[in-house]
Design goal:
- By secondary structure, this protein is α/β, with parallel strands linked by helices.
- It has three domains: about 90 residues, Arc Repressor Mutant, subunit A (Orthogonal Bundle), CATH 1.10.10.10; about 130 residues, Nucleotidyltransferase, domain 5; about 160 residues, 2-Layer Sandwich (Nucleotidyltransferase, domain 5), CATH 3.30.420.40.
- Helices cover about 40% and strands about 20% of the residues.
Length: about 425
């Protein structure tokens, strides 16, 4: 089995900061991007001298940088603290049945290097791991950063995977997979092949949802549902800023809700799953049966835009199936925000049908109270999501008192509100 090129192993604790309080400062800076010491002090209920003592070592170690901005009137320039963009990095790997990709990002989530490979993963476990290690090496090479500045690796797998054990259990994305993936300890084997102790792994849907919360349509929102409509269908349930996985560690498999017991056979072994109607792979397969020139979701959408009814019907039926899943989620969870992502959402016909069916199948209040939005297309989105998993592990959960403003500037919470959120006496 190939091993990653030599690089120093990093410790599992205190990689970025020496104390829990410094970690809290880093989490605040990360979620606010640019913030003054005074604003940090307001959120932490700390004095100016305390904040200075907390931030000085982070600045000295180049984890945090200081940007000087000129004041609007006479006075001292404002000092804004932000995460350093050129000293510490993580790797994110997206493992799919049709393609695999690795990216290198800095602490801010900026992609500084990427490597991509198309085609099915290899047919043996050792060669699969070898291929992923090679992707990591290539991505780091393209980023031109020293390997010792990499802190860890996040992995997103387009399959049913237990994020606690790191084992793929069943039902991986098709085509391109083989039975060799079932009961495959991906994390364990990658941990032995890579030189970094920091390693985290999860389902791709939850990985992308993590990136949506940090950088996308759900930025700063702790409670929402992310629904991926792509070659597979899956949901991530974000509660209090974290993915809810349930006692069995597999929550969110809405793609395998049965819509028709006599429907088409799904890769999970059951019939009529949402995924067999609403996924891009299912819709392209139906389109290809009508016209063999249909090979991609884009082909299907273009034929719909030409007002070709058979292809419009496929997209509408796919959206209708997704809408049934959304309706179930709205009635069950009553989320304030539902973010829809994936290539299927690029079709206006698909989305219109999904919204219409969700409204029809859900109660009035849950539908009215939910904001349903589509994710903005982002390059390297799945691999960036995997990198975000690693960054989340390094930074830890956000403090309860921290709330992100939609603007670049921060509006600190009043002290009495912070105390109430913390459960402290006012």
């Amino acid at each position: 089995m190939a091993r990653a090129k030599t690089g120093s192993r990093q410790p599992t604790e205190a990689v970025l900061a020496a104390t829990p309080r410094q970690h809290e400062v880093l989490r605040i800076i990360r979620d606010h991007q640019n913030i003054t010491r005074a604003e940090i002090g307001a959120l932490l209920q700390a004095s100016a001298s305390q904040v200075s003592r907390l931030t000085a070592p982070l600045i000295a170690r180049r984890v945090v940088t200081v940007e000087h901005r000129l004041p609007h009137a006479e006075g001292r320039p404002t000092e804004l603290l932000s995460l350093a963009g050129d000293t510490h990095y993580v790797v994110g790997i997206d493992v799919g049945g049709l393609a695999q990709e690795a990216v290198v990002t800095n602490l801010r989530g900026d992609v500084v290097g990427a490597a991509h490979r198309t085609g099915s993963p290899a047919r043996s476990r050792s060669s699969i791991i070898d291929g992923l290690v090679d992707l990591v090496d290539r991505a780091i090479g393209k980023s031109e950063i020293p390997r010792e500045q990499v802190l860890g690796v996040g992995v997103g797998v387009r399959a049913i995977i237990d994020p606690v054990s790191g084992v793929v259990s069943a039902g991986p994305e098709a085509p391109g997979w083989s039975p060799v993936w079932v009961d495959f300890d991906v994390r364990g084997q990658l941990a032995r092949a890579l030189p970094w102790k920091q390693l985290t792994i999860d389902d791709t849907v939850r990985a992308v949802a993590a990136a949506e919360r940090q950088y996308g349509a759900a930025r700063g929102i702790d409670d929402f549902v992310y629904l991926l409509a792509d070659s597979g269908i899956g949901a991530a349930l974000m509660i209090a800023g974290r993915s809810y996985i349930g006692p069995g560690h597999l929550a969110g498999e809405v793609g395998h809700i049965t819509l028709d017991r006599d429907g088409p056979l799904c890769g999970c072994g059951r019939r009529g799953c949402v995924e067999m109607y609403a996924s891009t792979s299912a819709m392209v397969r139906r389109g290809h049966a009508i016209d063999p020139s249909i090979a991609t979701m884009r082909d299907l959408i273009e034929r719909d835009l030409r007002d070709e009814e058979p292809f419009r019907r496929i997209l509408a039926e796919g959206g209708n199936a997704l809408g049934r899943a959304i309706g179930i989620l709205l009635n069950l969870l009553s989320p304030a925000l539902v973010v829809l992502g994936g290539r299927a959402t690029e079709s206006a016909t698909y989305m219109a049908a999904a919204r219409a069916r969700a409204r029809e199948d859900s109660l009035e209040l849950p539908f009215r109270n939910a904001r349903i939005v589509t994710s903005e297309p982002r390059e390297h989105s799945a691999a960036l999501g995997a990198a975000t998993l690693m960054l989340n592990q390094l930074f830890g959960p956000a403090p309860l008192s921290m709330r992100v403003s939609r603007r670049r500037s921060l509006e600190p919470l009043p002290v009495d509100r912070i105390q109430a959120l913390k459960g402290a006496p006012s």
